[in-house]
Design brief:
This protein is α/β, with parallel strands linked by helices. The protein has one domain: Rossmann fold (3-Layer(aba) Sandwich), CATH 3.40.50.300. The protein is built from seven helices and seven strands. A hairpin with a 4-residue loop joins β3 and β4. The longest helix has 13 residues. The protein is globular, with a radius of gyration of 16 Å.
């Protein structure tokens, strides 16, 4: 199975990716490591503190990269360049106030925090995943007040087909959307 774990920064992608890889014996990659290791970065935008990539070029590379791989996990903040051959996309969500605290602890610049909070409240990763992979392949996990082991347990149930992928109709922070624009 090919699994994508996506979500805005600080939602728990790396933690879940490591836990899943250990629990299931899957290979684990981050999109950032792949683009760095295979010279797929177009440039580094110092002002935005982000690497810029050519999405089409990266998607074509990933199609070949994943072609002969089974049981693999890819972590990415943006699902756009991920090939649609993914079997399951797990979208991690978190309360923006918690994300802001986590990002500040990581010394993110204020404008980067703001952009990422906008992405979270506007459902960017979820909507891109739905558009790319379809509702039947997208599972959304709201991580607020959940321990990593609880998130892992839910993810494994979806992977094993014990529960169907689902998305939330509305998350508690949607009512505060205006705060982030």
């Amino acid at each position: 199975m090919k699994i994508l774990i996506t979500g805005t920064p600080c939602t728990g992608k790396t933690t879940l990716g490591q836990l899943l890889a250990n629990a299931l014996g899957y290979e684990r990659y981050t999109l950032l490591d792949i683009v760095k290791d295979h010279d797929l970065i177009e440039f580094y935008d110092e002002e935005r503190d982000e690497y810029e990539i050519d999405y089409e070029k990266v998607e074509k590379f990933l199609e070949k990269f994943l072609e002969n791989k089974d049981n693999v996990i890819i972590e990415a903040t943006d699902p756009t360049p991920i090939p649609n051959k993914i079997d399951l996309a797990i979208v991690l969500r978190c309360d923006p106030d918690i994300l802001a605290i986590r990002m500040k602890k990581r010394s993110y610049p204020e404008d980067k925090i703001f952009r990422n909070l906008q992405a979270e409240v506007s459902d960017y990763c979820l909507l891109k995943s739905l558009e790319k992979f379809g509702k039947e392949k997208v599972h959304e996990i709201y991580t607020k007040n959940k321990k990593p082991e609880e998130i892992l347990k839910e993810a494994i149930k979806v992977i094993k087909g014990e529960i169907k992928p689902k998305i939330h109709e509305e998350l508690p922070f949607h009512k505060d959307l205006y705060k982030y624009f």
